[in-house]
Amino acid sequence: MHKLAERGLNIILVSRNKESLEEEARFIENAYGVKTLIIVQDLAFLTPEITEEIKSQISRLDIGILINNAGVHYDCPMKLSEVETSRLHSMVQVNMNAVVAMTSAVLPGMEQRKRGLIVNMSSGAGWLPMPMISLYSSTKAFVDHFSQSLHYEVASSNIHVQSLTPMYISTRMTDYSTTLNSSRFFTPTPDFYVKYA
Q1: Which protein family is named in the record (predicted)?
Q2: Residue 163 — φ and ψ, nearest 5°?
Q3: 101-133 as b/e, with b when 16 or more CB fall inside 10 Å?
């Protein structure tokens, strides 16, 4: 979002933590001189009614780019039977349902304006079956498949859908491994990855 704000685009932030959202919004506005809008919503608890509320909030806005990059992973690789039920639920809700819900919220406006870009954060973990992160891998395979299917569906409306499928990026999701975070060549920083994505 910083790279977009740098280029003068106004930003809408959606997350569950109001204080963090407000802090980030202030930083973006002060650093880049753009406007921000925050929507406080835990994506693990999206319902059709909440999705409709978000749709209503943004219906009059000219949203040109949607970036679906929220994600839930395991704390570390483990068997599915060892993962807490609440984590399994969150992973499905955030990694799949939220992508579909947020896309459905912005797509009508993009189709009406005949332009737009949707960027979905998938993962290289979705390329092949991945034991020990089986559910995460499956959710990311869904994101990539959904993105590619939608790309063809909306191309005639001048809407582009991009699926990013990196391996590891140095974020909180890789904190469990000092090996992963030891090499910027194999595990780039978010800034480095965004620059080339």
Answers
A1: Belongs to the short-chain dehydrogenases/reductases (SDR) family.
A2: -110, 120
A3: bbbebbbebbeeeeebebbbbbbebbeeebeeb
Token readout for 16 is 């569950």
Place of tokens 């954060």: 121
The active-site residue, picked from 136, 152, 168, 176, is 136
* Average pLDDT for runs of 10 along the chain of length 197: 93 96 97 97 96 94 96 92 96 98 97 98 91 97 98 98 79 59 61 63
The verdict on whether 32 is a catalytic residue reads no
Checking DSSP bridges between strand 65-68 and strand 36-40, what pairing results, if any? unpaired
Question: How far is Cα 84 from Cα 68, in angstroms, rounded to an integer?
Answer: 24
Model confidence, pTM: 0.86
